[in-house]
Write a structure and sequence with these properties.
The protein is of the alpha/beta class. The chain has 2 domains: 2-151, SPOUT methyltransferase, trefoil knot domain (Alpha/beta knot, 3-Layer(aba) Sandwich), CATH 3.40.1280; 168-228, Trp Operon Repressor, Chain A, CATH 1.10.1270. The chain is built from 6 helices and 10 strands, in the order βααβββαβαβββαββα. The strands form 3 sheets. It has a 5-stranded parallel beta sheet with strand order 2-1-6-5-8. The chain has a 3-stranded mixed beta sheet with strand order 3-4-7, with no helix packed on it. Helix 4 (95-102) packs across helix 5. The longest helix is centred in the C-terminal third of the chain and has 19 residues, at 199-217.
Length: 230
């Protein structure tokens, strides 16, 4: 998968992309990530990319010229790439949207900044994604969240192909509790059923715990009564 990121702050991505699973996925060639500085596409001699909004108002607005020129340039070398704007007005990111995005061969992530961006930029993107109903200083952190969430869904990225299938939200429920050694720590014991070796009982226990955890912590996720059956 090829991911292009348009940002005003390329160095924000350095550490995130050079650690853990993302580092391994890039090294193995499962994913190729290119970071593009929006300022490099500005026609202003000082590489200015923002200006005051028409009609007045606070803050500065990201200009359309450098962003649109950057998008057009990348699309010429990467035809078919889906351009996605990371912004608070977009679709709320969930696991299903992660799966849908992970099926793309190439994507371009546009990181907004300042007070907002010229509305004409939206004519050159296919979608807009938000990671939550709150405001951040820019689209860089949301872009990192999306990159991480879709990378781990790509075939061969995780060590165990079943890892992503068993996680929270994979089946609409929160994931069941996990335990490891020691089996007894400060009088807090691992449930006996997990030590039984009976895989059917363990599977049923995990399903039940997943349902109970979802009811207690995220009842909004319970949408079908059939999910309540162990």
């Amino acid at each position: 998968m090829n991911i292009h990121v348009l940002t005003l702050f390329p160095r924000m991505f350095d550490l995130v992309l050079s650690e853990s699973i993302l580092k391994r996925a890039r090294k193995s060639g499962k994913i190729v990530i290119e970071i593009h500085n929006i300022r490099d596409y500005s026609t202003d001699k000082h590489h200015k990319v923002d200006d005051k909004p028409f009609g007045g108002g606070p803050g500065m607005v990201l200009q359309c010229q450098p962003v649109i020129d950057a998008l057009c340039s990348i699309k010429q070398t990467c035809p078919g790439a889906k351009a996605i704007l990371m912004g608070p007005k977009g679709k709320l990111l969930d696991q299903q949207l992660c799966h849908d995005t992970a099926r793309q061969k190439s994507i371009i992530l546009v990181c907004g900044h300042y007070e907002g961006m010229d509305e004409r930029i939206r004519d050159f993107v296919s979608d807009e994604i938000s990671i939550g109903d709150y405001i951040l200083t820019g689209g860089e952190i949301p872009a990192m969240v999306l990159i991480d969430s879709i990378t781990r869904l790509l075939p061969g990225v995780l060590g165990d192909n079943e890892s992503s299938a068993d996680e929270s939200f994979a089946d609409g429920l929160l994931e069941y509790p996990h335990y490891t050694r020691p089996s007894n720590y400060k009088d807090k014991k691992v449930p006996d059923i997990l030590l039984s070796g009976n895989h059917n009982l363990i599977k049923n226990w995990r399903k039940k715990e997943s349902i109970l955890k979802t009811i207690r912590q995220r009842p909004d996720l319970i949408t079908h009564i059939s999910q309540l059956k162990p």
